[in-house]
Amino acid sequence: MLQEVIASQLRGIVGEKWFRDDRESLITHSYDGTPMLQSLPDGVIYPENTDQVAAILRLLQQYRVPVVSRGSGTNLCGGTVPVEGGVVMVMHRMNRILEVDLENLTATLQPGLNTKTFISHVEGLGLFYPPDPSSMAISTIGGNIAECSGGLRGLKYGTTKDYVIGLEAVLASGEIIRTGGKLMKDVAGYDLTKLLVGSEGTLAVITEATLKLIPPPKSKKTMLAMYKDLYGAARTVSSIIESRIIPATLEFLDNPTIRVVDDFAKLGLPLDMAAILLIEQDGDPETVERDIARIADICRSENAERVSIAADEAEALKLLTARRSAFTALARLRPTTILEDATVPRSKIAEMVLAINEIAARHRVTICTFGHAGDGNLHPTATTDARDAEEIHRVEAAFEDIFEAAIALGGTITGEHGVGLVKAPFLEWKVGTAGIEVMRAIKLAFDPSNILNPGKIFAKSARKRVVLGRG
Ligand SMILES: Cc1cc2nc3c(=O)[nH]c(=O)nc-3n(C[C@H](O)[C@H](O)[C@H](O)COP(=O)(O)OP(=O)(O)OC[C@H]3O[C@@H](n4cnc5c(N)ncnc54)[C@H](O)[C@@H]3O)c2cc1C
Fold first, then answer.
1. pLDDT, tens digit, for every residue of 246-256?
2. 3-state SS string over the chain?
3. CA of 123 to the centre of ligand 1 (A)
């Protein structure tokens, strides 16, 4: 419970209607997209503008009350679970597009804007914002920025960090800072914009963003390559990149994922294949034709059983939408779905897929694997049941081994979902003790009282396991 003196001042800042501490509001903001994590906040607040955010932070800083910024709560790392209580600050009311600058090709907007609404708006103006997390129908741009989200187009176009060029943010003290701007070049001091992108609400509250837009590609083609041999599919990924073609999308789905996606989306996918690759190329029509033909040759030379090219845009869209629904489709299998996010150099995709299968078999758990194979970012996904403590223990042990295998192959513990609560104990495996110390010092400089999303990124204690061989 918040002291009444704090609650009444919060009501004074945003108005009676926009601060809640009733049981329903607290429970609905006690969890996010991550399974098996829940912790009640003491209040939920919905600011309308930057000045209100600043006033809220000044007050909470004064009383040392934790504050968790929240977009739509779709993150998969426990990033918005208020583990130390305090106030959840929902950014949904700050959802305006402030400007689309057609001369500079930038958009300036508020963080609570829905990602798909923004992408559709920009496309309506004949422009392109490539970051496309599969959750875009629900997620917010602020959440995408704070997690540095990626998506199906990350391979060719990069991720959120490549499009954020300016930010307005409120520090824990309530001071407002501006970083970057509409500038394509800016080396004035440390790059605070890039530092805030991916900072998971632990350094500042993002209240406005300026994003880079680009011209859309003139044409696109989508194809499916189907494999009886999983290793062949994984090897194709490396071969395509090695041949110096960068497809717009290069996605991998293993057999269990093909089955559930097909059952969900009724696409008539080949259920007897060990894996399929979903590949899209875009650009000038001649380049697209040439690349798709070359990619099809590479797939066949890596023993693809069948290669099929989508007949038209509607069929292509159906395939991409089905891939985006993989998580939702898998979630229908068993009561609990734990979607993870290990990433390896793309030349190691085949080894990583084999390692995941071996680890799953060893721990007797079901793990389906799909993901952005083109950028080495796999989503091994366990379908399990949170009520079965013994099985959950095996699932956790399997994921620990998967993260270890990723790091041993020169990879990382998360490619796009962030550290949050879930990966915090593993962060030191990736960045080392000195890396953690530098990060802690940065956190201290931004948020000396540790009120911004406490308990995230930095674990109380790291996992002890030492990774010996690094590929
Ligand atoms: C079905 C499904 C598919 C997904 N697919 C993808 C995918 O393809 N790629 C991908 O990268 N992720 C994916 N995700 C994960 C998730 O959707 C992304 O991390 C997304 O960016 C979170 O956005 P959100 O608005 O829900 O943020 P939230 O979950 O509400 O918050 C995420 C983090 O951002 C912080 N935050 C939110 N707003 C602000 C702000 N204004 N200022 C400072 N910090 C803030 C929060 O404190 C938290 O740490 C998926 C999730 C689901 C459920």
1. 999 999 999 98
2. CCCHHHHHHHHHHHCHHHEECCHHHHHHCCCCCCCCCCCCCCEEECCCCHHHHHHHHHHHHHHCCCEEEECCCCCCCCCCCCCCCCEEEECCCCCCEEEEECCCCEEEECCCCEHHHHHHHHHHCCCECCCCCCCCCCCEHHHHHHHCCCCCCHHHHCCHHHCEEEEEEECCCCCEEEEECCCCCCCCCCCHHHHHCCCCCCCCEEEEEEEECECCCCEEEEEEEEECCHHHHHHHHHHHHHCCCCCCEEEEEEHHHHHHHHHHHCCCCCCCCCEEEEEEEEECHHHHHHHHHHHHHHHHHCCCCEEEECCCHHHHHHHHHHHHCHHHHHCCCCCEEEECCCECCHHHHHHHHHHHHHHHHHCCCCEEEEEEHHHCEEEEEEEECCCCHHHHHHHHHHHHHHHHHHHHCCCECCCCCCCCCCCHHHHHHHHHHHHHHHHHHHHHHHCCCCCECCCCCCCCCCCCCCCCCCC
3. 22
